[in-house]
Design a protein that fits this description.
It contains four helices and ten strands; from the N terminus they run βαβαβαββαβββββ. The chain is of the alpha/beta class and 163 residues long.
């Protein structure tokens, strides 16, 4: 079983990221769907300081990262596997006409993904679309994030708050 903090739209609020990491001590990874507005190396330092050094980090740039250090080091899309059963399409979402999710699910399907994680709207969203789980964790700048627990045959999503 793997456990991830999933967040988006940090907008420079590193203290909220730190609070989430302290609250969720036993995570295997952190997934960030853009609009970080922090230097990615600073984000990594926070994660490795408050979590464990073996923690996996997946992060993409958002539209508000265009003029920050994140723009030069983070891609707009990251595709990765959590285990043999789940493949994730991670993006901020603004390039895919969110809040509509049909384009996101098509893009994920083209990459062979069965999970889409996106941000941008600052609103929690969870829906199955054509067999693909489409998830927005809400905005960490507002204290919202999600714990995603993945087992070989099961996904559990738990909404959380640092407030």
């Amino acid at each position: 079983m793997s456990k991830f903090i999933v967040c988006s739209d940090i907008h420079g609020r590193s203290g909220f990221l730190r609070k989430a990491l302290i609250k969720e001590k036993d995570v295997d990874g952190v997934i960030i769907a853009g609009d970080i507005e922090l230097d990615p190396s600073e984000v990594a330092d926070i994660i490795y300081e408050d979590a464990k050094s073996s923690c996996v980090i997946h992060a993409v740039a958002g539209n508000c990262d265009a003029y920050s250090p994140a723009a030069s080091t983070l891609r707009p899309v990251d595709v990765f596997e959590i285990n043999d059963s789940y493949k994730v399409f991670l993006t901020h979402g603004y390039r895919y006409s969110v809040p509509r999710t049909d384009i996101l699910s098509y893009a994920a399907e083209e990459q062979g993904c069965n999970i889409v994680i996106f941000g941008h709207t600052h609103q929690f969203f969870r829906q199955k679309e054509a067999g693909i789980l489409v998830l927005n964790p809400g905005a960490l700048r507002n204290g919202e994030y999600v714990i995603l627990t993945v087992d070989d045959d099961r996904i559990d999503i738990s909404r959380r708050s640092v407030l």
